[in-house]
Amino acid sequence: EVQLVQSGAEVKKPGESLKISCKGSGYSFTTDWIGWVRQMPGKGLEWMGIIYPGDSDTRYSPSFQGQVTISADKSINTAYLQWRSLRASDTAMYYCARYSQITAGGDYWGQGTLVTVSS
Amino acid sequence: QSALTQPRSVSGSPGQSVTISCTGTSSDVGGYNYVSWYQQHPGKAPKLMIYDVTKRPSGVPDRFSGSKSGNTASLTISGLQAEDEADYYCCSYAGSYNLKVFGGGTKLTVL
Fold first, then answer.
1. Distance from CA of B105 to the nearest CA of A (A)
2. For chain B (length 111 residues), average pLDDT per consecutive 10?
3. From the list A61, A106, A107, which residue is nearest B99 (CB)?
């Protein structure tokens, strides 16, 4: 059974750093892409970027380029989404999803990680 | 990159059909046959309902169908059921620079 399991909710202060994770199981982690999607409170979905864990090829939406870092450790089937300096506007639910190709739909999704940034 | 345009809300009675539109440009919806649709119930992760404009993943009822004409894609749900009440989002591949773009979402109410 394909599963993406994300790390737990986080509460952080502005300026702090954060790295959340997405662990894949039940499929070949290195031959599919993992994408990240943001959903701010009460708002719609926003596509952030995608990584191919097989060779760490990473692409970002222009809106998120330079704001976050996407990485992966294929030895433990885990992808990451990282911030160096959080802002209150980063408060959102973040989802990871599996994509067979960049052009494809996300066929399996993690349960989401809620990130709250507040002073 | 602007979000794709979807109606804020649509509604229908059980057994009826509804269609949700998703309008983009020739740089996204109109330029590629890579439109997907997602269903999201409150507090839940999105679920893929349609990919590559018309294809249904295994397990998705055939009441859900997708189509595209020019720069507008559509999701049609026939034989509406109470459990179809949810938010629906379209998403299109938008080329090697913008990659992907979502629509703003449509709230479906089953009356």
1. 6
2. 89 97 96 97 97 96 97 98 97 93 97 92
3. A61
